[in-house]
Amino acid sequence: MDKNTNVIDLELYIIRHGQTFGNLGKKMEGFSELDMMDAPLTPKGQRMAELLGERFKSYPFDAVYSSGLRRAMMTATEIIKRQPENGSHEIKILPLLSENGGKEEEYTGLTFAQEKEYFPFATLADGYTENDRMISFTSGWNDAQQLERAKKVISHIRAHHGNGEKVAITAHAAFNTFLCHAIMGLDPEAVIFDPHFLNTGVTKFYFFKEGTGRYGIDVVLAYLNDLSHLYNEFPEYSLDPCFF
Questions:
Q1: Domain-embedded: residue 227
Q2: Which pLDDT does position 241 carry in this prediction?
């Protein structure tokens, strides 16, 4: 192989879920206990997820992973519903992708059987069974512990996907930050900036086969928090991200 040949091992897309009422700091009247503990998308958040799915409708993913929380699963659903014939048409639930926090005494999460009722496309990531809980409980964890969890996610993805595969992850703002820290080898306690992951924002990384990466680097950040799919309908979000 020519030493100047770049060989892509993995294209990884890290995505935050669509907007929820919790993101807006609002409680919707008539919300059930489940809605309070495991928030669904707002109508606008649902539309954001649909536009996200449209963005990738001609771009086949080899796998789509999601946390077991409903807002992430709802977002992932809009991606796989629009995948081309040769794309992924299932959602792999990876409980390690849960948002930071999660108090076991307050909410134990949906069972896999319940997930299937809400999301017929749901499957389990390798290493999990139908008896496992679909969310991780990390209340009180420090940054080092969250980072280790993020590293386990990346190790799982890297162990199961290579040879140029395209993989999407739908997860959560705070934990997506740790995923990016894990990929880039950053110490979260020493980082002095916050990437502020936004609803349906897309972050893309290239992983190159060892020794073939550009500029001698085998992991490249292609873009961070891209919201171009929202531009036509929600220009206030795509052009002024601090708006929400």
A1: yes
A2: 58
In a domain, 144, yes or no: yes
User: Tell me, what's the pLDDT at 31?
Assistant: 75
* 200 φψ region: left (φ > 0), alpha (ψ -120 to 50), beta (else): left
Farthest CA pair distance, the chain: 63
**Parent domain of 207:** 8-243
Give the strand order in the sheet containing 202-208: 122-124, 91-93, 63-66, 165-171, 8-16, 202-208, 219-226
Whether the CB-CB separation of 110 and 118 falls below 8 Å is answered with yes
Count CA atoms closer than 13 A to 235's CA, side-chain side.
1
CA distance 48 to 41: 9
Report the number of distinct structural domains present in the chain. 1
Q: Is 65 left (phi over 0), alpha (psi -120 to 50) or beta?
A: beta
Decide if 188 is inside a domain. yes
Residue 24 CA: distances (Å) to CA of 19, 73, 200: 8, 19, 15
The mean pLDDT values, 10 residues at a time, for the chain of 244 residues are 76 97 72 82 96 98 97 98 98 97 85 96 97 93 96 98 97 96 92 87 96 89 95 84 53
Q: Residue 72's domain is classified under what CATH number?
A: 3.40.50.1240
Residue 159, both tokens: 């162990």
Would you say residue 221 lies in a domain?
Answer: yes
